[in-house]
Amino acid sequence: MKRILMLASLLAAGMPLGAQNLGSEYRLKRVIPVEGRQGVAADSNFYYVSGSTALYKYDKQGRLAAKNERPFEGLPLAANHIGDIDVWDGEIYAGIETFDDGRGENIQVAVYDANTLKWKRSIDWEPSSGQVEVCGLAVDRDGDMVWMADWVDGRYVYGYNRKTGRYVRKVHLRPVPQWQQGIFMVGGRMLISADDGDADLDEPDNLYVADLRDGKSYATVLPFRSMADFRRPGEIEGLAVDPATDDLLVLANRGARIVLGMPRGFYPGYDGEVHEVYVFEKVK
């Protein structure tokens, strides 16, 4: 009984639960329309979604609970773009930069209060790492690291100490997923979303997985899941695993033609871009 009461109190407070568990098979459960087009994260009570210039908070029925449409206020470096996000221990971690025509500058990890969605602090980027863009990030809950991915040059992911902000190391992904968009850490393994399908040809995007637990300078990347259940091929974005349910969450956009990461008109039948979080339940 004490254990049940403790779990209930953690859920009510939105505190982190135990580590998520990655399954081997997932089935589409529902699709939630959202306002943001970049990333998704989850804690015990809420989904968090990033737009290019905004942060949103939804309850798990898909109702908007809060938003911050001025997320760059107070940042130490100028920025115009938020990528994929993560949430841990009451804080949202966001990969932020100034992005223009396929290039990133002023890269940083911005940390926001998950309750208010207000900026708290930033982790500085280490230019000598070789990273030139940040499409998304993930908190490694087991290793107490923050990893950043690079859409422009996806050969490496870059790890920082979550508490000190110190750059630690980079890991060579082999083979390299094309046009990475989001990453998520589960028990030392990294899930990677890749915008590698051609929407003009109705090709699905894909998820990949890489095991970083051995601490080596490289990691083998393996196929994890084809996202053929999207309502229309478009642009896959961020992903997460819900700590309360083990549901796999994947954000995807459809309707807009994307060139070098930027919308350039719409496909027939669309006059705007549609943003949706796909919720997949774990089968096994």
TrEMBL record:
> Could you tell me the superkingdom of the organism this chain comes from?
Bacteria
The secretion signal range is 1-19
What SUPFAM superfamilies does the database record attribute to this sequence?
3-carboxy-cis,cis-mucoante lactonizing enzyme
List UniProt keywords, sorted A-Z: Signal
Mind telling me what this protein is named? Uncharacterized protein
* Species the sequence originates in: Alistipes shahii
